[in-house]
Amino acid sequence: YAGFGKHVLEVCQQFPHVEISAQVWCDEIPKSSANAHLFLKAVQLLEQAGEVSCDAQPGCHGRNLFEETVWRLRQSFFRDNKNIAQLDCQLALAAEMGLPCDRIVELLHDGAAMAALCRDTDLCQEYGVAGSPSYILNEGRQKLYGNVGYKVIAANVQEVLNQPQHQASWC
Hints:
There is one protein chain. 51% of the residues lie in helices and 5% in strands. The protein has helices at residues 2-12, 34-48, 65-78, 87-96, 101-109, 112-127, 150-162, and strands at residues 134-137, 142-145. The protein has a two-stranded antiparallel ribbon with strand order 1-2. Helix 2 packs antiparallel against helix 3 (65-78), helix 2 (34-48) crosses helix 5 (101-109) and helix 2 (34-48) crosses helix 6 (112-127).
């Protein structure tokens, strides 16, 4: 992991606005990202149920609470060098943000968050999403995956938007 951490640091040096710990991928190494995704799914379920606001929040740069939770969880790992796979780390973040920790734990324990996360996995398989980022266009007939340049993405989107009916796409 240390070699990957060094690579991440080198890449991030190109972006002065990115804050990253010099110890990323060296000290606090999550065994999996699955627990973090499960925690985020629980927060998203609360948003969908109307228990957490879906409106942009003051001080969150236009993000709602779920989006801010995603952002802060990433900061916790990359900037603050915390093991975000651990529930205590996740719940500390939730408490700091004023999220209902008891409801999050309930959704984790009763299987609701897991069911929703599994549904996301099923959708990935259904649409052929192999990883991130993936862009599925044209009712699933086009897929852009991986390190794709903005001009390639723009050309594909424009082709889908402007494509005359019953003609093959050039992209």
